[in-house]
Each structure stands twice: as C-alpha cells, then as structure tokens.
Amino acid sequence: MGHQRLGKISKSQAFKSVVALVTGDHSSATGGGPAGGGGGGVTILDEIETIATATLKAARQGLESAKSDAGLCHTFFKLTQLVLSARDEANWRERFSELGIALDEDDGMFEFAQNLQYSLQDSFDELGTYSDIAEMSRKSAVESVRRLAGPQSVTLFGSGPEELRDAIRTLSTKNGFSQLGRNFFAGILSQYLNFHLCKETPNAVREGRLDGIEGLREFELALDAHCYESARIVHDFCGDWYSKTNWREGITLENTSRAVAFAIEKLQRELDKQEKGE
C-alpha cells in the first residue's frame, strides 16, 4: 500500500506531441518546423478531444494503475453505501454516522460535503493507503454528490439534514446511480488529464494560445465537458451494476473493486476509439 504518486511523465515522443498540441509549437513534437497556433482559425479549445486522447496515451500507465487503487475503490464503495443509507428512513442518521458523516440539526450540503471529505480521508488513513488517484477520487466523489444532490437539497420547506437525505436518496435508484457514477468517473478522468496538462498550459498562455487566467479556466471547463461526454460509456454500466449487485448479492468492497476496474477499462477503450476517429 503506502503513498503512491503519479510523478512526472517522461519526455517521450508521446508527451512531446501533447506539448505541441497545447502550445502550438510543432517543433517540440517533430524536431523542426514552425511554431504556431494551428492555422485556419483553429483554437486550442477546438482541439480538446485530440489533446485529451494524446495526454492519455502519454500517461496511460498511471491510469492503468488506478484500476487497483485501494483509495479509489474504497471511495466508490462508500458512495454506494451512502446512497443506500439514505433509503433507510428510520435509521439514516445512524447509518450516515457509521460512514463517518455525523450531521447536526442545522447542517446542510456544505457541512455534509466537509464531513464526506473528512470521512474519506480517515478511511485512507485507516487503510494505510494514499495516492494521487485516491485524492482525485475523494474530490470527485464530493463534487459529484454536491452537483447532483445539492440543488434538490434546498426546498421551500428548508435546507437541513432531512432535505439533504431526500436529495441523496434520489441517487439510490438505478438511474440516479448511473448519473452519480458517470459524474464520478468523469471527474477523476478530468483531474487525471489536467494533472499532466497543467504543467504545459502556462506555455499556451505565453504562446497566445490561451487568454490568461480566463483562458485557462475556459480550457479546464472544456476538458471537463469532454471527459463528461466520454464518461457516457460508463453511465448505464454503473446503474446496471449497482442495481443488480445490490439485489443479487449485496455490494461489497470486493465486487466494487472489480466494477471500478471494469469502468476504467471502458473509459480507456472509449478514448482509444476517439484517438482512432471511430
């Protein structure tokens, strides 16, 4: 177990191609030729799909290791237990507390999100495992629940724990968990790609390919949107797996780990198809 970092991508030909796409300096990929922003009015935002697939190709090994990352598997497992706990009308507070999420009477989504973050961190500490992928999964889990349940947790009748629980319960259906799973894996993929790209995007600003901080933010949002679209491939899988597994045998960390590995494999295949233009 231990502390695993993604580290640096070696300056391979594959990564030089990524640099060329981000900065527009094609000499960094070919060893010669003019620098430029891609003629014909093509901007860096028009090349998001190409950049994403090229980055994955250059950094594939790190994503491959995510298939067996203990922190990632545990995080996805905790999401399943969270939404199932929200179904328990009589004892949901106790079940949330068992997951490390204790809510006071006035707590809403903000306090819940903090508790979920701390709960996941405590779990990583107890497991004795921590990695960059685990941290990405923690952030994605919190953001996914907040994005999907947050708006529904504020009602005309209040925005406390009861409303929060009702909102999270909507994610416990087959369709609800499909959405949660898609958001979760899209978030990890986006963070993973940006982890490597953020080392080169400042160069894109200097080369005029991105317009300062605003341009960087626009680039990140475009990358998020691309990853969310790519993660459509795991939408149905997440809902089907969650629903069938919970009904047939019950969701465990072991069968969750297998599901995580398969979901990442599906994502990899999807990005491979994009690279080939299929």
Number of contiguous helices: 14
Helical content (DSSP H or I, runs of 4+): 55-70%
* Strand content bin: under 5%
Q: Return residue spans where pLDDT drops below 50 for at least 5 consecutive residues.
A: 7-12, 26-40
Number of E strands: 2
Order of helices and strands: EHHHHHHHEHHHHHHH
The rounded Rg comes to: 20 Å
Round the mean pLDDT to the nearest integer and report it: 83
Short précis:
The chain is mostly helical. 68% of the residues lie in helices and 2% in strands.
How would you characterize this protein structure?
The protein is an all-alpha fold. The chain has 14 helices and two strands; from the N terminus they run βαααααααβααααααα. Helix 10 crosses helix 12 (212-230). The two termini are 38 Å apart.
Annotation keywords:
globular, 68% helix, mainly alpha, 278 residues, 2 strands
Topology:
Elements: E1 2-4, H1 13-23, H2 27-30, H3 48-58, H4 60-66, H5 70-85, H6 92-98, H7 109-127, E2 129-131, H8 132-149, H9 161-169, H10 174-197, H11 201-206, H12 212-230, H13 235-248, H14 253-276
Parallel strand pairs: 1-2
Helix pairs in contact: 1-3, 3-14, 5-7, 5-8, 5-14, 7-8, 8-10, 10-12, 10-13
